């Protein structure tokens, strides 16, 4: 997921990717790679480029950076989602089942393209 997020151009696309991944992950946990490919393709992100990143030294660096950020907050649950750099259990619980709705509510003052659909 880290490589795909790094490759996406804007926050709206990142919200769409994470939303797609989380919606599908709940239903098909054992197919994580296929879920990532499906979500990447839905955003016109070349799945082969994402896989190349994933299997590269750059992909390792990107993932280690994400792991370091995760270690700083010491999550009790994966995925743990921070909003504005803060953990909120209610937002966490709500975002597991409807990530996009939570994000759109939080950014309602400045809605992005991802929240219009």
Task: Explain what the structure shows.
- The protein is mostly helical and 117 residues long.
- It has one domain (2-111).
- Helix content is 66%, strand content 0%.
- The protein has helices spanning 2-7, 11-27, 32-42, 47-54, 57-73, 89-106.
- The longest helix has 18 residues, at 89-106.
- The chain is globular and about 35 Å long.
- The two termini are 23 Å apart.
- The mean pLDDT is 84.
Overall domain count: 1
**Got a strand count?**
0
Q: Spans with pLDDT under 50 lasting ≥5 residues? A: none
Q: What count of helical segments does DSSP give? A: 6
Strand residue content: under 5%
Largest sheet: none
How large, in whole angstroms, is the Cα Rg? Answer: 14 Å
Shape: globular
Mean pLDDT, rounded to whole units?
84
Helix content: 55-70%
Q: How do the helices and strands follow one another from N- to C-terminus?
A: HHHHHH
GO molecular function, one term: oxidoreductase activity, acting on a sulfur group of donors, disulfide as acceptor
Family: Belongs to the GILT family.
Keywords: Glycoprotein
InterPro entries: Interferon-induced_GILT (IPR004911)
Chain-wise SSE layout:
Layout: H1 2-7, H2 11-27, H3 32-42, H4 47-54, H5 57-73, H6 89-106
Helix pairs in contact: 2-3, 2-6
InterPro entries: Interferon-induced_GILT (IPR004911)
Family: Belongs to the GILT family.
Keywords: Glycoprotein
């Amino acid at each position: 997921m880290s490589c795909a997020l790094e490759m996406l151009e804007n926050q709206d696309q990142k919200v769409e990717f994470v939303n797609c991944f989380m919606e599908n992950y709940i239903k098909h946990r054992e197919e994580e790679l296929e879920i990532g490919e499906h979500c990447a393709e839905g955003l016109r992100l070349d799945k082969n480029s994402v896989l190349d990143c994933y299997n590269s030294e750059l992909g390792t660096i990107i993932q280690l950076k994400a792991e370091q950020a995760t270690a700083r907050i010491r999550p009790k649950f994966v995925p743990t989602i921070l909003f504005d750099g803060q953990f909120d259990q209610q937002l966490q619980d709500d975002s597991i089942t409807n990530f996009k709705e939570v994000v759109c509510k939080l950014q309602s003052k400045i809605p992005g393209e991802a929240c219009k659909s």
